[in-house]
Design brief:
The protein is α/β, with parallel strands linked by helices. It has one domain (5-111): FAD/NAD(P)-binding domain. The protein is 26% helix and 36% strand. The chain contains three helices and six strands. The chain has a three-stranded parallel β-sheet with strand order 1-2-6, with helices on one face. α1 packs parallel to α3 (91-104). It starts with a strand and ends in an 11-residue tail after the last strand. 18% of the residues are buried. The model has no long low-confidence stretch (mean pLDDT 95).
Length: 122
């Protein structure tokens, strides 16, 4: 029987772990408690490194680029210029991207499963 790895939880970290395992050729199953998995929409501000990792795949989740931050206090304004723009992405779209890429690499996603216990093998 084929030995498979298990990842628990379809959060960004769980999906990214499953994607990386699958890309490395390791058979992996991801288990998520939600039956109707719909990630909560919210925005994330991330560094440009994410674009180097995901390339054009990120376009569907990309909302904006930020090249500076402005801090305002009691009428004073300080501007912080960034060396390279930070990216504003849609978390739900990004999670769907991770799920799709993981499945394309061979990961199997299972919904409606709750982890109840972990027991040592042997």
């Amino acid at each position: 029987m084929e030995e498979r790895w298990a990842v628990v939880g379809a959060s960004t970290s769980g999906l990214f772990a499953a994607l990386n395992l699958a890309q490395a050729g390791i058979p992996v199953d991801l288990y998520e408690a939600e039956v109707d998995w719909q990630p909560t929409p919210r925005t994330l501000i991330v560094t440009a490194e994410i674009e180097r990792v995901f390339g054009e795949n990120l376009n569907d989740a990309l909302l904006n680029r930020i090249s500076r931050f402005e801090l305002v206090s009691k009428g004073a304004v300080a501007t912080i210029m960034l060396r390279e723009p930070d990216l504003v992405i849609d978390r739900a779209r990004f999670m769907h991207l991770l799920a799709r890429l993981a499945q394309e690499k061979g990961a199997r996603l299972h919904f409606g499963y709750h982890l109840e216990a972990v027991e040592p093998e042997g």
